[in-house]
Amino acid sequence: MGMDIIYETYEKIKSMEIRGAGRIGRAAAKALRDYAKSITDIDDNEFKNKMIDAGNILKSARPTAVSLPNAIKYVLNGLNDKNPKEAVIKKAEEFIISSSNATKKIGEIGSNRIKDGYRILTHCNSEAALNVIKTAHRNGKHIKVICTETRPRNQGYLTAKDLANEGIDTTLIVDSAVRYFIKEVDLVVVGADAITSNGCLVNKIGTSQIALIAHERRVPFLTAAETYKFHPKTIVGELIEIEERSSDEIHVFEEQYINKIKLRNPAFDITPAQYIDGIITEIGVIPPQGAWYIIEKYFGELFNE
């Protein structure tokens, strides 16, 4: 196994074979756990250096989803223990379990904001947001869901299939039709790749336009975000890098147009806090203004580096 598991996980995250902030964080924790288990017959200092190198490789896979560096930092904090190998393995397993439990709790809490008969709009393929919707359905609420295609990778098709398999009345629309259908929507629920210290949401490209449209129509806009998606470095002014992916994901023009037409493919955008009505976390629904508190409470000691 060795470093193969690290490079394999890196490639799966980078290529979006593993997608979704929570899934990315858990995949990184699992890779670090399995890599740590495979390392034998070296002293603690060598072990620490190998684990730090592995963490840096994984972190470079995708720059925007803060669940990736947060998961790695949580796991590698075990290197400070007197038994670093055992501590790293334990930390990794703790993160995997707590991440899964957080998603379930978010579903339970967020479903309380959904009333019987609601029509909900969602974007992309968020595990946390879908848990909110599916929990409401499982609790007997009669709901309908509109989901976007989410170009250019069309994650909305995965969302539509997931919802349909649950028996939920599901409609798939093109991204540009959100303004047309917003009049039929009672609530918007999306996921999160990161939350900044001032309560802004970093999420799949197109989210900010949906939030603006919802705000204009007075439709509540909620985001579902585990606490490990709050970005600690933003509290000291660091900006979040927005990943820009290959233009090939959008379109490949004929050769005569390659130098004549530019293609841009940002994977995420930023939704201002004033367009967000609430952030659903595993500890409750908080206003965007509460983001600073979450970062200070949960990441103050671990991330003040």
Automatic annotation (TrEMBL):
Its EC number is 5.3.1.29. One of its GO terms (molecular function) is translation initiation factor activity. Keywords: Carbohydrate metabolism, Initiation factor, Isomerase, Protein biosynthesis. It catalyses: alpha-D-ribose 1,5-bisphosphate = D-ribulose 1,5-bisphosphate. SUPFAM superfamilies: NagB/RpiA/CoA transferase-like. Pfam families: IF-2B (PF01008). The keyword Manganese does not apply. InterPro entries: IF-2B-related (IPR000649), IF_2B-like_C (IPR042529), Initiation_fac_2B_a/b/d (IPR011559), M1Pi_N (IPR027363), NagB/RpiA_transferase-like (IPR037171), R15Pi (IPR005250). The active site is at residues 124, 193. It comes from the Archaea. Belongs to the eIF-2B alpha/beta/delta subunits family. R15P isomerase subfamily. Reaction proceeds via a cis-phosphoenolate intermediate. This is Ribose 1,5-bisphosphate isomerase.
